[in-house]
Structure formats: structure tokens, C-alpha cells
Amino acid sequence: MTEPLLDIQGLVKAFGALRATDGVALDVLPGETHAIIGPNGAGKTTLIAQLAGDLRPDAGRIRFAGEDITPLGAAARSHKGLARSFQITSVYREFSALDNVALAVQAHAGHSFRFWRAAQSEEVLHGPARAILDEVGLGSRAQVLAANLAHGEQRQLEIAMVLATRPRLLLLDEPVAGMGADESQRMVQFLGTLKGRQTIVLVEHDMDAVFTLADRISVLVYGRVIATGTPEEIRTNREVRAAYLGEELED
Amino acid sequence: MRARLVLLIVGIAFLALAPLVATAFDQLFYIDLLRRVMIFAIAALSLNLILGYGGMVSFGHAAYLGIGGYAVAILAHHGIHNGFLQLGVAVGASALVALVIGAISIRTSGIYFIMITLAFTQMLYFLGISLDAYGGDDGLRLAARSDLGGLVDLGNSTAFYYLVFAVMIAFLYLIHRIVNSRFGMVIRASNSNEARTRAIGFSPYPYRLAAFVIAGAMCGVAGYLFVNHTAYLTPDFMHWTRSGEIMFMVILGGIGTSVGPILGAFVLLLLEDLLSGMTGFVGQHWQLFIGLFLVLVVLFAKRGLAGLLPGAQRND
Ligand SMILES: Nc1ncnc2c1ncn2[C@@H]1O[C@H](COP(=O)(O)OP(=O)(O)OP(=O)(O)O)[C@@H](O)[C@H]1O
Ligand SMILES: [Mg+2]
Fold first, then answer.
1. Which residues of chain A have pLDDT under 50?
2. Does A43 contact ligand 1 (Cβ within 6 A)?
3. Which domain holds residue A137?
4. Which among A16, B113, B182, B210 has the fewest CB atoms less than 10 Å away?
5. Is there a contact between A103 and B200 if contact means CB atoms under 8 Å apart?
């Protein structure tokens, strides 16, 4: 059996009396797309935040590529190869799409104590940034301010920023949330092209997206993983149907 | 873009020619006035680097005005008049103090950041008052202006004017380079969206601290020039109202715009000069009118006066 790329043990995060993460154990294998589903407030975003280093767990351990990364902050984890997208779009609104991605490239191109040369004139930053914008389908929008991009384009831009850090593990928090049917289909298609090349943790409410993309699915309810398995196993799991999927898959 | 460039050139040409005109019409007072305005423009430019681009609302920027001033005055008091040495001490001491204040305050944010920077500057202010050897509360007459050898004679009003003018233009350009460099992009990105900045792999702290130190050192230069301008040092250099005044200049001129701080310094100080010189109700209550003006600008010009110029755009 292959070593998991990500290995989570006994993770706990409480907000006051509420245990948003309540003893989560989970592993993600190299190359797989591992979806995390669950009802609103189940603790999916809270889990992603702890994996990305934005939130510190109260207990538990996170191993990434064999190394304990629990004490590391978000920036350090980015350099280890973790990259997240946010449920609520998080881009630099007053920078162009190209500058947004170039910043992500720059973050992984040595220190930034360079005070004189204009970053916008640096082909080593903007070359790769343009290539990634092309890849996600935003090539023609490179010079547009992020604030002026459509919602779906901003989500694409965020994926481009994630990819620009050359991650080993993508943590995507509802990448198709708020998208129209067309946009969402294109995003799912694009994420499909990453399958196999990238390891992905995918939080998503859109069940079409989940069952199209996921190799394995974990179901989170009240901060606990109640089941992990292949899409087929999850679809037929009694407990899952009772707790969550029942109404979603009724039809 | 074009129109802005033309305006910039007109502005620079005006300042370059002003001493000649003032001399021709025997109105030397204006050389003094504009020199003072430009010194504050330098202070405002430096504050804008951290406040406008970095989002660090430092309410204690006058501290560095004071440290630059004290460096010159104390050295002069002890008979050391070498202007280059004084400049080195002024800049070095300002940078060092900014390093200490920044190292602590940048760990906080929001209202705490404002309060800590204010508190540190108040401490320095009261330290200045307690320095009896250097005039304490009353301050200290500058024994002699900084001696810059054959380079510039600071006793010559016009020559001094052109030095201040050159420093202001140089700083304007320097900051323009900085905010567009890799370093500047990190500073601005951290201001725009800190969570995103960490997520892509930057730790904002060391970059913010470096910006804070650069701004402090630059304002130290303003302090160096200011004490030579007034030829008299008092702890009031560091009074909190002075910090507020510099902040007003930045906000008035346009936060995070390149020429905004210069614009803000000119409008605020010239307006102060104009209104306080009036007779009657306006002259007596001129602060009221300044306050009213500031409120109006903040309410109706989101990006300050620079935002009203043609082709206004962030960061140019
Ligand atoms: N910073 C916080 N402080 C207090 N409570 C929080 C905080 N963040 C999340 N919670 C609570 O923790 C629980 C889990 O929230 P979380 O956002 O992780 O859910 P989620 O599964 O991502 O939900 P959704 O599907 O709506 O995005 C919720 O009850 C939420 O109200
Ligand atoms: Mg969520």
C-alpha cells in the first residue's frame, strides 16, 4: 500500500462549546481526488483551515509527505506544497488578474527583499503567470482588475493562484459555489484535467461535481467523519443516506 | 495618464522656479514657506509608504521627525557640526527606533496598532521634555546649521530650498520604485488581503517591519531638514498633533497615491497659513474651517485630492 500524502489523526477544534472538528482522522493518497461532503455547518471549512494552517487545532496531528506539519503556519505550509482556495472568493481585488497570479509565483521564487526593479517587468514572474492563466482559461482577461472579473472568473483566478504555487496538494473549498450551470460545468471539466496529475481535497456541495471527480469521499457530520469510501460505497451507505445524502439523492 | 504627467511636470517646474520669482519680487518669505511645506511633504511621503501602501495606520510618525531633529541638535550642542555625520546619526537613530517600535506594534493590528504607535511616540515626547540638558520643555536653539561642506550652504535660504526640493523629488521617485518592486507588491498584497497573502506563501511580518523601518528612516531625514529649517528644536516636533497633521496630509492628498502626500502637505499647510492670517471670525476660528474642509474631502473624495486629478488610478 502506498504512503498517504496527507495523514490526519485525532484532529479537534472547538469554538467555545461547539466542537467544529471532533476527532477527525483521514488520509489522502497521492494522486487521488478526495471529496469531503456534509451538511452546512458540518465543519468542512474549519477542517480545510486547519489543514492549510489558517487555524490551529486544539488537538491532533497532521502529517504531510511523512512530516508532522501541525505546528507550521499557513505560509510555511504553502512552501511545503499545500495550497488552498477559499469558500468565499479570496483574490487581490485591486490588482490585475496577471498580477494576482504573478504574486503567487513570486512567493515561491526566493525572498522578496528586492526593492528596485518593477515586478511587472520581470518575465520570470509574468511568464509562468500568463501560462497558468491560459491554462485555466483566463488568458484573455490577464490585464483586467480582479474586482472587475465576473464571479466565476474570480473563482478561476483563485484556482490559477493555487496552481501558481506549484502545490503537491490542493485544498479546494467549494470551487463551484455560486457559479452558473455552464461555468460550474467548465470548472468541473477543468478540475477533471488535473485529476491524476494533482492530489486534491475537494469540499463541495454540488453532488454532480463530487461524483464526477472524486476517487474517494468522506462524509463529515457534526465535526465527525461518519464514512469514507468510494463514490459507490458512499451512495449506498445507510448511515450516510440517513444523515445527509438521503434528501440529496432522493431523485 | 497624459494629463497627470503634464500636471506633475507643471508642479515640479513651479517649485523649481518659485525661489527665482520670489527673489525677483523680493518676497523671500515664500521661499521659507514652501521649504517648510516640502519638508512636511517628505514626512507625509514616508508615512504614505506604510499607511497608504502597507495599511499600517501609524499614529506616531512625528517620532522620527523628532529623532532626526534631536540627532542634529544634540550633536551640534556638543560642537559636532558635520552635516553628513549628523545625517547618518539622524537616519540611523530613526531606523533603530522604528525597528523597535515596529517589531512590537506590527504584531498587533487595527486599533491596537494605532494605540501602540501613539503610545511609543508619547513616551519619546515626554523623554524629550525630561531631557533638561537639551532644553527640556523649552527646547534648544540649534547652535549652528548642519555643515555640508561645499555641497550646500544651509544658511543660504535658496540653496537650502533646492536641497529640500531635491530630497522630496528623490523620495517621490524612490517610493515609486519601492511600491512597484517585489517588496512593494508584498506590502500592498498583505494590505489588500492578508489571508490570501499567507496562503500563497508570504509571511507579511518581516516585509511590513522593513517598510516601517524605511519609512522611519525617511522621516528622520525630514526631521534633519526641519530642525535646520526652524533652527530651533522643541519636544513639540514629536507632539501627537503633529503625527495627526502628517496623517491628515496623507489622507487629504490621497492614501496610497504617489503624489497625494505632497498635494496634501501643500493644501493643508497653505490653507492653514492663509486662514490663520485672516482677520475676523475666520482668522480666529481657522482650525474649524480646516476641520470642515477635511471632513468634506474625506466624504466626497474617496481617494483624496489625487483622486480628483484626471486619469486617477491607484498607484500612479
Ligand atoms: N471562527 C469561528 N468562531 C465560532 N464558530 C465558528 C467559527 N468558524 C466556524 N464556526 C462554526 O463551526 C461550525 C462549522 O463551520 P464550517 O464553516 O466549518 O462549516 P462548513 O461545513 O464549511 O459549512 P458550509 O457547508 O456552510 O460551508 C459551524 O457551526 C460554524 O458556525
Ligand atoms: Mg464551508
1. 251
2. yes
3. 91-166
4. A16
5. yes
